[in-house]
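Onboarding guide, step 5: your first structure request.
Type a short instruction followed by the sequence, for example:

Predict the 3D structure of this protein.
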Amino acid sequence: MRIIITGGGTGGHIYPALAIASEIKRRNPAAELLYVGTERGLESKIVPPTGISFKTIEIRGIDRTSMLKASRALIKFPFSFFQARDIIKDYKPDIIVGTGGYVSYPVVLAGTFMDIRTVIHEQNAIPGLANRNLSRRVDRVLLTFEEARKYLDAKNIKVTGLPVRTEILAIDRKKAKSENKNSGRFELLAFGGSLGATSINQALLQLVERYRNDNIGITWIAGQAGYEDMKFELARIIDVKSIRCTVNLLPYMYNIEEAMAVADLAVCRAGASTVCELQVLGLPAILVPYPYAAENHQEKNARALVDKNAAFMIIDEFLDGDFLYKKIEELRNMEQKLQEMGHNMKKEAKPNALNDIVDEIFAV
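The system replies with structure tokens like these:
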């Protein structure tokens, strides 16, 4: 069996693709895999070290801030389509699997014209432009959120969920909380991704000041870009050694699952991977969607959980320390409400997503 996997631009498209590739090889060690991405994209740094064969095509995303920039991207599309066609002709795959991002569009599209079986996976509650256009042509569409179905005109759709890291799947939250040396103390986890989130960081500065005399633990992952500034600002406004609350300020946390395991509440963005990890753990959250995400998909992801009473959402421009403090206190003092949110979050989880996705690929 020969399979082309394609998806790129952001980790949200790449890491699910690599999880799928790994599971395919686990089940069928004889399977041959080729990853098609771009030379400029993040995939060019992440994929080659995994040992998966990697080829590139020349394509860029459509910059919608300018008609001129968008036109330049569209003009180059036929070239990328023919590049993809040549790769497919040479490799002769049995299946092409696309996980989204602009690079997946010409590859999967070319496959549909060449009578190759095609599968796409959509991570978000509102599908990206590439997957919306591909859905009517491919053999199977796999979704993370049921809410995405209404945007697609597809022959065969199945909600599978999104692959979640094995470290997350292995967590027993009840056990972790009972073994926590600060058991009984309210634990808050705040993060904004690897680079951080300015709005969340600024709100956390004010929040720490509000909680200075409270017995609360705050794990604050400020991101690589914002850590030094936040460390300086925190030291400027507060003597951390003299306050009652415990603040663990970090630039990044490789073992973030350990903090998620003992947290009572998370404050974070609403990317698909983050949302699915929260679901698997049953960790209630205050979601602050990234306002510049394509198609505003993070807000749609958040609303899908808000509608199920599993999370609360604060729009980025309205986020500040006072508003965040009031909402945290509201939830902190309503233990039953917090537990209900966690239960509803857990109900949305699809811990078998990876198996279900690969089952569908093999079925096609």
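Each response can be followed by summary notes, for example: Residues 167-347 form a domain with the Rossmann fold fold (CATH 3.40.50.2000).
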